[in-house]
Write a structure and sequence with these properties.
Layout (H helix, E strand, L loop, with lengths): L2 H25 L11 E2 L7 H11 L4 E2 L4 H9 L93 E2 L8 E2 L17 H30 L8 E11 L8 E6 L2 E7 L5 E7 L5 E6 L6 E8 L2 E7 L6 E8 L5 E8 L3 E4 L3 E6 L4 E6 L5 E6 L10 E7 L1 H4 L19 E6 L4 E5 L5 E5 L8 E5 L2 E5 L6 E6 L7 E5 L5 E8 L4 E8 L2 E11 L5 E4 L3 E7 L2 E6 L5 E5 L5 E7 L1 E6 L2 E5 L8 E9 L5 E17 L3 E6 L2 E8 L2
Parallel strand pairs: 1-2, 18-22
Antiparallel strand pairs: 3-4, 5-39, 6-7, 7-8, 8-9, 10-11, 11-12, 12-13, 14-15, 15-16, 16-17, 18-19, 19-20, 20-21, 22-23, 23-24, 24-25, 26-27, 27-28, 28-29, 30-31, 31-32, 32-33, 34-35, 35-36, 36-37, 37-38, 38-39
Helix pairs in contact: 1-2
């Protein structure tokens, strides 16, 4: 396997580990920037991707130890079953050793026997002139006697009394013809035991460590094999459209209708005669209405609903850039209005799972708001140029998870906060770019002299791609996890080529549309991957690119709306399908037979398997305002003429 293969396999697993690290830091009541250090342990932490992902997510440069696997091994040893402490030996103590006698040992005296001497170590048999004995003994003082009992190696007291040693007070049988003796009593003979081999405990521990390492390696290999062999982008089991639920939208025909879908909830909004908005929450599994609430404030017009974790945001429209409009947040469980805030018509709003970031253009700053109550979490002024200009461009950093989920018709991810979707890149009037943490507002990294405000810019995972729209352009790739200089990902052949669109379309891969001599029929797609030669192919009239897993969707608007789907090598698998398409997930598309409209009408839809381009006709959405529709991989929710309708389209 190549390094790219390993990193592709490891990235989803490491991403989960990085998320756990963030959760642990938060559970300790800390922010990443409050850490004294971030130390990597375990042999796998040698993979450069580990440090890059942690650095990019937490903004802390990790420290890699010289031997990162040792803390794991040493920690594992602390959990091994330890040997029980051995009681002290209670038998007779050894007598001091004396010089060896010149002849055989003296016979035992007639009186009571003296305690047997315990030699300091087993010895070789006595010289040939000594009388043989049953078991060779060490030299002893003249008053000691030879015995048929075996000799015992001398060890410190705590080393005896373990397994194989009798407890004090028990009787130990002696050799044949000799009465047993009482342990601990005078004249007792210790029972023999085998000495522990030097290094035995270390070897047993080493075996546990080796066994654990082998099992861990086998588990990783199995997981990697299953991951590589899995169907990365499974086909949905499409079925004919079936109506799940139909819900009323007031007594009068609404002037405007909006929808949003997230997980098992659909949120349906329609304008009331008094210019407020009524929002209805529906269980997409059963079609049951969960709650129905009206906003506390009215608006000139309403723009959209945005479903976020635990809440639904309502964004009002405005007739001009400087005109105030409302941003309202409703609780997803009850529909109660949590808060509302006035913003301007040209202000943008980006959401994470716990923060709403407002691009406050009049004040020249970014403001992070708590989703819970709308209070300010942080505020950061825009970069200024030498003339005091504060214009700015902000883009969310895309993630693989978000790019593998449902998208709007323009290709933007509907659930942009999934994965590591808590970061933004901000381009300032001074041409600087900074990477921001959405939750804290911290600047994770900053680069100078990157791009002009009208240049094309897109960020995904650990890469930022920027390119000017001028002729003879070049695409630069910045590593969001380091301060390294950018690499030239692609350079146009000559000044005849101009850049039209730029998207991230895979791991360290950017796809772009370039037009030669302003002739739309000579539009080309270029797929540029770091470390590989770029690949290009013709896409006449294409105006937009949408990544769909390993495939790429190219959309054409004139003379008639059509979509073409290419595989990773540029081979078309679906050619000039009439209509417009939206990504359902990384392996499937939803295609409307005609462009969507705010006027109620019938719209035919089809499901497409991205890998093969196979089309499955689903039927018609009857009398719907197709511009109001939202979807996920199971449900399409649309506003109709006087009500809302939910359709199911998969056989789940």
């Amino acid at each position: 396997m190549t390094r790219d293969d390993v990193e592709r396999v490891a990235t989803p697993l490491l991403r989960r580990a990085v998320e756990r690290a963030r959760e642990v830091i938060a559970a300790a009541g800390l922010r990443p920037d409050q850490l004294a250090g971030l130390f990597l342990v375990g042999g796998s932490s040698r993979i450069p991707l580990v440090a890059r992902m942690l650095h990019a997510e937490l903004g802390v440069a990790p420290t890699v130890l010289d031997q990162p696997e040792m803390p794991v091994a040493e920690g594992a040893l602390t959990d091994l079953p330890l040997r029980r402490a051995l009681p002290a030996y209670a038998g007779p103590q050894a007598a001091p050793a004396g010089p060896a006698p010149a002849g055989p040992s003296a016979p035992p005296p007639a009186g009571p026997s003296a305690p047997a001497a315990v030699p300091s170590a087993p010895t070789a048999p006595a010289p040939a002139q000594t009388a043989p004995s049953t078991v060779p003994t060490a030299p002893a003082p003249a008053q000691t006697v030879a015995s048929n009992a075996p000799t015992v190696p001398s060890q410190p007291g705590p080393g005896l009394g373990g397994p194989g040693w009798p407890s004090p007070g028990s009787t130990v049988p002696g050799p044949p013809g000799v009465a047993g003796t009482l342990v601990g009593a005078a004249g007792a003979t210790p029972t023999p035991t085998s000495p522990t081999p030097p290094g035995g405990t270390t070897w047993r521990r080493a075996r546990w460590v080796v066994l654990g390492a082998v099992l861990a390696l086998a588990g990783v290999a199995t997981a990697a094999t299953l991951y590589l062999l899995r169907d990365r982008y499974p086909d949905l089991e499409f079925g004919s459209l079936r109506e799940v639920s139909r819900l009323p939208a007031g007594a009068e025909r609404p002037s405007g209708m909006w929808t949003a879908v997230l997980d098992d909830r659909a949120y349906l909004g329609y304008a009331l005669p008094d210019d407020r908005l009524e929002v209805v929450a529906v269980d997409t599994g059963t079609g049951d209405e969960l709650w129905r609430r009206q906003t506390d404030v009215a608006a000139y017009d309403w723009s959209r609903l945005i479903a976020v974790p635990g809440a639904v945001a309502v964004l009002a429209d405005a007739p001009g850039d400087s005109t105030p409009r409302e941003l309202i947040l409703l609780d997803a469980r009850s529909g109660a209005q949590r808060w509302h805030r006035a913003i301007r018509g040209d202000d943008d709003v980006y959401f994470s799972d716990d923060t709403a970031v407002v691009v406050d253009r009049s004040a020249g700053r970014l403001v992070g708001l708590k989703l819970g109550d709308g209070t300010d979490k942080w505020s950061r002024p825009n970069p200024r140029d030498q003339y005091g200009g504060i214009r700015t461009v902000v883009r969310p950093v895309g993630t693989d998870e978000a790019a593998g989920g449902p998208a709007f018709l323009d290709g933007a991810a509907r659930d942009s906060w999934t994965g590591k979707g808590r970061r933004l890149v901000q381009l300032g009037a001074d041409r600087s770019v900074r990477l921001l943490d959405m939750s804290s507002g911290s600047v994770l990294r900053e680069w100078g002299n990157v791009a002009d405000l009208d240049d094309l810019m897109v960020a995904h995972e650990d890469r930022l791609y920027v390119a000017p729209a001028d002729g003879g352009y070049q695409v630069l790739a910045y590593d969001l996890g380091s301060d390294a200089a950018p690499v030239v990902l692609y350079r146009a052949e000559n000044a005849e080529y101009r850049l039209k669109a730029l998207v991230a379309c895979g791991e360290r891969r950017a796809c772009l549309l370039q037009v030669r001599n302003s002739d739309s029929e000579r539009t080309e797609v270029v797929a540029a991957t770091e470390g590989k030669a770029p690949v290009s192919w013709s896409a006449p009239g294409a105006t937009r690119l949408v990544p769909v897993g390993d495939q790429l969707l190219a959309e054409r608007e004139y003379p008639k709306a059509t979509v073409t789907l290419f595989d990773a090598a540029g081979k078309p698998v679906l050619v000039d399908r009439p209509g417009v398409a939206a990504r359902l997930d990384a392996g499937n598309l939803l295609v409307f037979a005609e462009p969507t409209s705010a006027v109620a009408d019938n719209r035919s839809v089809a499901g497409v398997w991205a890998e093969s381009g196979e089309v499955d006709e689903l039927g018609q959405l009857v009398d719907v305002r197709s511009a109001s529709c939202s979807w996920n991989t199971r449900i399409i929710a649309c506003g109709a003429d006087r009500d809302f309708v939910l359709y199911g389209f998969t056989n789940d």
